[in-house]
Structure formats: C-alpha cells, structure tokens
Amino acid sequence: MSSTTETIPTYDVVVIGAGFAGIYLVHKLRDDLGLDVKVFERGGGIGGTWYWNRYPGARCDFESDYYSFSFNDEIQQEWDWTERYAPQPEILRYANYVADKLDVRGNIELNTTVTRAVFDEASDTWTVSTDTGVSARARYLISATGILSVPSTPKFADMDSFKGEIYHTGDWPHEGVDFTGKRVGVIGTGSSAIQSIPLMAEQADQLTVFQRTATFTVPAANRPITENERKATKRSYKQLREQARRAGTGVLVDQPVGAFGEVEERIVRGELERRWRGTGFGTTSVLSDNLRSIEANNYTSQFVRDKINEIVDDPAVAKLLEPHDYPIGTKRLALDTNYYDTYNRENVKLVSVRDTPIERFSPAGIVVGDTEYEFDAIVLATGFDAATGALERIQFEGVDGRTLTDAWAEGAKSYLGLAVEGFPNFFTVTGPGCPAILTNVIASIEHHVEWIADYITYMRAEGITRFEATPDAQAEWVKHVADMAAMTLYPTAASWYMGANVPGKPRVFLAYIGGLHNYRDRCDQLAADGYVGFAHASDGAPLKSEQLTVGA
Ligand code: NAP
User: Directed axis angle between helix 441-462 and helix 516-528, to 10°?
Assistant: First the structure.
C-alpha cells in the first residue's frame, strides 16, 4: 500500500480572525515576542465587524478618541478622527491604516474560514483546517473572532418565496444599496436598526418597521471634531488613556449623582436633562443604583419614555415606541441620531409584532395577522449569535476529542473569558465571561492581547509547553460571573447578553459585570502569583519552526 505525505506549515501561533484583535496580536506576538504568527480571516479584507457592518448609518457608539488603539503613540498622533462617533468607513480605513503601519498583512490569509481545530496531546499543538484546504499547526491557538460576528437570521416561514431583495445589516453589500423609490420593510429595532432607519427613511419611498420589543435609545449628539479639539486630545492622550484604563467600561464616563431617593429629585432630573443632550451612555448612570434597584431604574426609564412622547407627534406611535419590557440598560442601550423623530415622517410606518408575530414571508412581502405588507426590499436588523456563535461554528476538538460545542452544551463556560478547561493552549480574546461586552471593546482587546503575550513569554521562559484552565478555577469563575450578574437587574431582560435572542441557546449571562479595571487587577494578580488557575506541563515535543512532515 502506498503512503502519502502531507506537509503542514507550522507556526508558533495561529490566530482566527483579522479584526482589531487579530491585527494587534500579530504585532504584539511577532514584533515584541519574535513569534511566527499566522492569521486566517473569513472576510476578503481585514477589520472584522467594520468590514461586514456597512449598513447606512453604521458608526461606533463609543467616542473615537477612546475607540482606537492606545498602545502606539505614533498611531494615535498620526490618525485624525473626524467625528465624535466615527462612521464605519472611517473605522475601516483606520483598521487598514494600522495594519499597514504595523506591516501585518503578510501574516494574514484572507478569504479563509477556519472549519476545524484539533489538539494533539503528544506534541501539545493544534492543527487547524480551513475551507480552502490550507492547514496549519501551532503551539498556541488564539480566537479573535469577535463578539458580534455571526449574523442571526430568524427562520421566518416562506422566506425564500419573497421576490424582492433581502439584506442583513451585519452582512451588508459592499457596493451599498440604493433604496430610492423603493418600499422597504425593516425587521428589528436594536442598535443596527436604530442607526439605519433614519437614513433609509430619507431615501426610501416608504419604510415600514416591524418592532417586537421597543428599545431604549438616547441621543448620540454626534458632531464633527474641531481641529482645536483634535489637537487638545492628542496632547492629553497619555492621561486620557491612563484614566480609561482605570475605568470600568474602558472609557471615561460622568459619575453618578447618587442613589435613588438619596439625592434631591431636582438634581437628578437636571442631570438627566444635561446628559440627554449629549453624553450618550451617561443617561443610564445618573443614579448609582440604576442597574440594581428597580425603583431607580423606573425613574430613568420613565424619563426616556417621557422624551419619546415629547418627540413623537402621534401619541399612538409614541406609545408603541415606549419600552416597557425590560429595565433600561439591561439590554444594550442604543445611541441614535434622529431615531424617534423619524417616526414623524409621512413615509414611515411602525408595526408592532409583539402580540401578533410575523406569520410568514410572501412573494410580495411580509404577512402579519390578516395584513400583507408589500415591499421591494426587506432589511433584517435581527442581530447576532453573540459571544459564542463564531466559536461554535468551528469544530474545536480538545482533550479526548471533546468538542467545544459539547463543552458548552449547557452554556458557555470559560476561565476569565480567556481560556476553556479541556482546550489546552487555546486563548479566547474577549471570550464569554470577560467584561468585553460591557466595555469599549478595543480597551478589552488591548488588555487581553497584552495579558496573553505576557503569559506566553512566561511559559517560554519556564519551558512550559502546555497550559490549561483547571476545572476548579473555571467553575469558580463561572459562578462568580453568574453571582455578580444576579446582584443586578441584567438577568431580568431577554437580551443577547443572556443568549436570549437566539432560539434554543442556553441562557447564561455572557459578561463579567465587575468592570474592566477590577478584571484587569485580578488577571494581573493571578499572573503575578504564577498564573493561578492554570495547570502547566512541559513534556510536549519542542516545536519546530520549520515545516513539519506528518502522515505515512
Ligand atoms: P439586536 O440588538 O439583537 O436587535 C435585533 C432586533 O431584531 C431586536 O429588535 C429583536 O427583537 C429583533 N428580532 C429578532 N428576531 C425577531 C423576530 N423573529 N421577529 C421580530 N423581531 C425580531 O441586534 P443589533 O441591532 O444588530 O445589535 C446587536 C449589538 O451590536 C448591539 O447591542 C451592540 O452591542 C452592537 N452594535 C453596536 C453598534 C455601535 O457600536 N454603534 C451598532 C450596531 C450594533 P427583540 O428585542 O424582541 O428580540
């Protein structure tokens, strides 16, 4: 019988995903640690979320001065943000600028989806397979697949029968879409819908929004950044970044005025009014107990509901737009530009599908109850299979061939959101159970990349070839994350934070709510104590940096 020989390129590290995390990982591990790094990226370009989410109005809702890399002063001094909240094309340009500046493109293979990754216990290495047939082997495998990277499309009956175009906000055509003269239906009223509806309404002939749950949104107060402001920010970046590092959300926010009932209402009201005019997320942190006390939360929620009634002309439409299904802040707060005003337009209609759900699609449009709504195009703004979706689409096989999907059958379990028991030498950047979801994600990415780099440095110095989260450490962390969430109102909402937006997904709160600053301290401390919670072994075969020949 003849034998075949397959050569698999071998690296120190394989990274999955070339968004901001993948870009920084290449730079950090290659340039600071001298490692051989290979990145596989599903998209035809780098930038992750900002590569795919090109819907009208897509922009960041963390301020650009913070939603940007802090690790390289040359980059932050050279790059000019033009708006307080940068639009998607500008953020994508920034990602490409950083990639060129750090010269990382040569390490990235585009249009390549990782399909499977298998851990080999004899050598302490991962072998990664892709849809293009390219494989790779590495000591360390790092997922940088993003939190919101797998669009979620509900299975509406007869969807294929619709004769018009169907778009998903999370997978928008690169050439853009012209809705001029079109009748457009939008399903969903989360952040993506809230950003895109005002712009689509300006273009379309008619826009019909199908709303299941009304969402709390507050004005973004977006505006151009002046030259003087830009210069001032650049001068003070050092302090700004340092303060952001010590903040719970990775950005500076206005402090609460106090707890509900302990501060004069006049002061609370005044501060809510001030923040409504321009501090974005600050609206939900006027009261220090907004996410712990339902009375406090009701006060803030009612403030926003009153605003909706002030803005929207038709009282019946305003009533439908009032969120009543969850406490404000327990589902992701949206920031908008003219969202509620858009419902005053003649060409915009709001249809509640809360009590009568969408029954089916038809060749002409969407059927709800006895009514068929006719469209030329339908936009699905229906969100993502968050935090775990991208990972569970890859067949990870850890110790004894156990898959990640099996390990997470009852909900995602992770140590620190960085590592999973049973999956040695595998790091998850911004994985489930870390604070990333509730923070400026670039701050979380920077922390994870730097922490991982330090850990790899430690293991190489100690001759360690294998690390793995211990069952006890993981169980304790999972419990801690759940206990922290249970002390708040978060679990009362059917949010994507809980996995509740995807039918059948186990409900587990996917974020550590203790704040990035506390999390950072904890990660630093356990590292200083010798990487507490991780088991180590040193008997893996030395990793060759040249080509490895396998098969016979
Ligand atoms: P989302 O917040 O999950 O919203 C999805 C929407 O689709 C919800 O209104 C949901 O209703 C609706 N929906 C889902 N299935 C439905 C069905 N079968 N029938 C009717 N309605 C249905 O998704 P997203 O707006 O894409 O935002 C996801 C996250 O991405 C945000 O929370 C945010 O973290 C991030 N994001 C950030 C930005 C930014 O930084 N600027 C912009 C966009 C998105 P229910 O609420 O009833 O489930």
Answer: 0
Is residue 438 lining ligand 1, measured as CB closer than 6 Å?
Answer: no
> Is a pLDDT exceeding 90 seen at residue 5?
no
Domains 7-150+386-545 and 151-215+331-383 share a fold: yes
- CA-nearest residue, atom 17 of ligand 1: 154
What percentage of the chain exceeds 90 in pLDDT? 95
In this prediction, what percent of the chain has a pLDDT beyond 70?
97
Q: Is 353 in the pocket of ligand 1 (CB under 6 A)?
A: yes
Q: Which of 229, 184, 542 is nearest to 365 (CA)?
A: 184
What is the DSSP track for 378-392?
EEE---B-TTTHHHH
Beta-carbon contacts of residue 58 (< 8 Å; ≥ 6 apart): 87, 88, 169, 172, 192, 195, 196
- Domains in the chain: boundaries: 7-150+386-545, 151-215+331-383
> Atom 34 of ligand 1 has which residue's CA nearest to it?
332
495 CA to middle of ligand 1, Å? Answer: 9
Provide the CATH number for the domain formed by 151-215+331-383 in this structure.
3.50.50.60
Q: Which residue's CA is minimally distant from atom 48 of ligand 1? A: 501
Pocket probe mutation, ligand 1, options 501, 507, 510, max atoms within 8 Å of Cβ: 501
Position 305 pLDDT exceeds 50: yes
7-150+386-545 is a CATH 3.20.20.100 domain: no
Find out whether the beta carbon of 496 lies less than 6 Å from any atom of ligand 1: yes
Rounded to 5 degrees, what angle do the CA atoms 523, 148, 248 make? 35
Read off the pLDDT of residues 95-121 as tens digits, 9 standing for 90 and up: 999 999 999 999 999 999 999 999 999
Position 542 scores a pLDDT of 64
Ligand 1: centre distance to CA 179 (Å): 21
The model's pLDDT over 38-75, given as tens digits with 9 standing for 90+, comes to 999 999 999 999 999 999 999 999 999 999 999 999 99
Nearest to 455, CA basis, from 340, 534, 346: 534
Q: Is the predicted pLDDT of residue 544 greater than 50, yes or no?
A: no
Residue 539: pLDDT band by 50, 70, 90 thresholds?
A: confident
Nearest CA to ligand 1 atom 2: 190
